[in-house]
């Protein structure tokens, strides 16, 4: 930064984003020092980039320091700190942060906010909190759930044993569910041994992506989970007849000469 030309906020944000992507903490810290010396800390976009940079470099407390020192915030600011909490596995703090956003800020959450919130709740197994947040998104903010949001809430409910509720969420969606959403519920059926629903979802996936060997493998695993070995063998035989083969696994461990 020896040039007489001074970087603008947009330039600094891009450089900080690069630092975040490669976890270049020392470089990011130096840029932060330059920002303070040059009086550009008042730029909201720069502060947002700093929050993300510190979070991805593993210095979460500095993300919070930057956020708390900001004089002007936008929805990206809140999304950045929510994502920072989520990245550091602080699910309950994510929920508290969202409540603070609702109570203290006139800024409305957007799609990205709810993706970060639901993802954090999913990782922390916060079923009740995730359900409330999902309903808030629908009723208070009239946001149509995205594929990622549906997949996230479906996966959490399914893994937690709430298969019926997960199915109801999909059926109540305002558009036809993406196969990713059905896969989330399909995987939950294996974990919970729900053969009836698993068969139904298998039929849906068979129509959408019949040549996907994973569908046959997961269905056969459901049969194995509940001890239906004849059906397990039938699915494997069907795979052979239709020419669908399971992809072999690979290992990086090789023999030493």
TrEMBL record:
<dbReference type="GO" id="GO:0009451">
    <property type="term" value="P:RNA modification"/>
</dbReference>
<dbReference type="InterPro" id="IPR046848">
    <property type="entry name" value="E_motif"/>
</dbReference>
<dbReference type="InterPro" id="IPR002885">
    <property type="entry name" value="PPR_rpt"/>
</dbReference>
<feature type="repeat" description="PPR">
    <location>
        <begin position="43"/>
        <end position="77"/>
    </location>
</feature>
<dbReference type="Pfam" id="PF20431">
    <property type="entry name" value="E_motif"/>
</dbReference>
<dbReference type="InterPro" id="IPR011990">
    <property type="entry name" value="TPR-like_helical_dom_sf"/>
</dbReference>
<dbReference type="InterPro" id="IPR046960">
    <property type="entry name" value="PPR_At4g14850-like_plant"/>
</dbReference>
<dbReference type="Pfam" id="PF13041">
    <property type="entry name" value="PPR_2"/>
</dbReference>
<protein>
    <submittedName>
        <fullName>Pentatricopeptide repeat-containing protein At3g49740-like</fullName>
    </submittedName>
</protein>
<dbReference type="GO" id="GO:0003723">
    <property type="term" value="F:RNA binding"/>
</dbReference>
<keyword id="KW-0677">Repeat</keyword>
């Amino acid at each position: 930064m020896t040039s007489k030309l001074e970087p603008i906020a947009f330039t600094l944000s891009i450089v900080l984003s690069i630092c975040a992507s490669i976890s270049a903490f020392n470089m990011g810290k130096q840029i932060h020092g330059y920002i303070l010396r040059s009086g550009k800390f008042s730029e909201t976009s720069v502060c947002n980039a700093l929050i993300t940079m510190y979070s991805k470099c593993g210095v979460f407390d500095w993300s919070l320091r930057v956020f708390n020192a900001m004089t002007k915030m936008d929805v990206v600011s809140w999304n950045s700190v929510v994502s920072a909490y989520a990245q550091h596995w602080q699910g309950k703090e994510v929920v508290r942060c969202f409540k603070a956003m609702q109570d203290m800020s006139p800024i409305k959450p957007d799609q990205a906010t709810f993706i970060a919130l639901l993802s954090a709740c999913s990782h922390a197994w916060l079923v009740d909190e995730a359900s409330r947040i999902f309903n808030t998104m629908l009723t208070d903010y009239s946001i149509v759930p995205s594929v990622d949001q549906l997949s996230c809430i479906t996966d959490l409910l399914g893994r937690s044993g709430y298969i019926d509720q997960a199915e109801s969420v999909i059926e109540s969606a305002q558009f036809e569910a993406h196969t990713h959403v059905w896969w989330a519920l399909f995987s939950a059926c294996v974990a919970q041994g729900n053969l009836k629903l698993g068969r139904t979802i298998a039929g849906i996936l068979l129509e959408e992506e019949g040549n996907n060997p994973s569908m046959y493998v997961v269905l056969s695993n459901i049969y194995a989970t509940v001890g239906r070995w004849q059906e397990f063998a039938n699915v494997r035989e069907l795979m052979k007849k239709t020419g669908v083969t399971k992809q072999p696994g690979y290992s990086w461990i090789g023999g030493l000469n």
